[in-house]
Amino acid sequence: MAMQPTKKKRVASLPQDIIELVLVRLPVSNLLRCRVVCKQWDGIIRDPQFTMAHLRHAQPRPLLFFQRGETYGKSFPSEAVLFDEAWLPSTRGVPVIEPDDFMCASCNGLVCLYSDKSTIKIANLATGESMHLAKPVKYKHSMDDHSSFYSFGFSPATNEYKVLHFLPGEERHHVGGSFSVIQVYTLGDEKWRDVRTEQALSLFCVKQTGVVNADGAMYWLTKDEESSWRRAVVSFDLRDERQKLIRLPEVIFADPAFGNPLYRITEIDSKVSVAAVQARRDSGLAGRLHVWTLDNKVKQSWILKHSIELSALYILRPHFIYGDKIAMHSGNDGIYCHELTSQKFTIDVTKLAKLLDFSPRWIGHMQSYMYVKSLVRLDAYKKAGIVCTPRRKEGWRLKKWEAWEHERSEVEELWRAGHGIQQRMHELARMMGVAISLNLPAPPDQQDSPLRRLNWVEQRRVANMLKSHLEGLDAPWAVIAQAADAACGEKKKMTLAADHAKRKGEESEAGPSRPKRKRKPSSRFDSSTWTT
Length: 532
Prior knowledge:
Layout (H helix, E strand, L loop, with lengths): L15 H8 L4 H7 L4 H8 L1 H10 L3 E6 L2 E3 L2 E3 L2 E4 L19 E6 L2 E5 L4 E6 L5 E5 L15 E6 L4 E9 L9 E9 L6 E10 H7 L2 E3 L2 E7 L7 E7 L5 E4 L15 E7 L2 E9 L6 E11 L4 E9 L4 E2 L5 E2 L2 E5 L4 E6 L4 E3 L6 E5 L8 E6 L15 E2 L13 H31 L23 H17 L1 H37 L22
Parallel strand pairs: 20-25
Antiparallel strand pairs: 1-4, 1-27, 2-3, 5-6, 6-7, 7-8, 8-28, 9-10, 10-11, 11-12, 13-14, 14-15, 15-16, 17-18, 18-19, 19-20, 21-23, 22-23, 23-24, 24-26
Helix pairs in contact: 6-7, 6-8
InterPro entries: F-box-assoc_dom_typ3, F-box-assoc_interact_dom, F-box-like_dom_sf, F-box_dom, SCF_F-box_component
Protein name: F-box domain-containing protein
Pfam families: F-box-like (PF12937), FBA_3 (PF08268)
């Protein structure tokens, strides 16, 4: 009796909670594609609760922002380099970052960008979504405004994003300067609001050390003559917009081998931290780094997080610790990372991993931020009255960046030339039956060149690779040309031999040849009858 096939039970669809557990672990690029699978998936991915759950799974990575500037007489635009999970730098430029932008802050995958325009731009680098906010009225076109006077943060208690502007006081033209008013804008509101500080705070410290967002508050340094640091931390709670002064731990920096410390404020493991860097007096090189983390905000207690001997390297700013790694620079052209092996240790130069070569750019034009790729949406805030679209030309089309774009086109021409030579060599090698190994990829379509999307680091690498490739073609080209000449000579010999054999064959078919009879010359051509 034939066996009947058993009917397999099929699940009509997975429960939604199982789908969410799977989707929440996918990267943003995959989730954006998953939205078109079905309405259910699109609804899950668009849900704000799913967005926050995805953020909790995301691992922060470094974002290096190089602001526009001039080095060795050459102008460079603003660009960002992002690092992935393997600590490899990105190769593509970020479309929402224009060449004249300055970065103010990074929070939950959103960045705050400042420019000479009358707006502040909030952008999601992963999704490409952006929105422009009108600057405070007084500083829409002011020459006294600066990108370091702005910051951006998130309050988990109210689920709100806020932009802060430190309003310079009347004495801003003096050395340092101070401020007594913080202008605050909540995404989705209609206008900026002024919040007065309890006392005048140092604008110089804000400009030099920056502002960080941690546990729902903004933190920055200000002057405090009573502290051994000569500094104190200001906490600005984003929920109730109240300020609080936090004293730093008592530390003695009087070491004759080291100079006065430089201070940095940063975030480590979602907690505000303060670093003191001391240079060696004999060499002037960076030598010692101490990092304290705020352990209890109410009691204002601090713990020593790290004590590191830097071995002539310098920390990045404002962020330099990412998980179990510390990022540093050599001061010239290299950015490195080192494992945080313990609470107290010395940087081992043999274990440094080079992340990036930023030459010929200047390290003073670089900032480091904590960044995660996220799904945070901005379309919910675009109906606010303060949101606008500036009527300006696209940044890359401005005349001052024509030379930069021309250089990019030169890289394209070099690519096309190299690929054209490679194709001719392959054709010639095929004709001769010779195998050669040349694997330069095909150049991009001239109408839609990806070189505009390459960041400056990758563009330089591609240019160097192409130059090296063209220089390396000389030797194989000479060998192929010599082989071609030899092949042509051999072919000519074979042709002559074939013609000779053909003639001999024709003669053998006609029989033996008879001796030729000499003819008597005609009298008409006798030389004796010639006349002049």
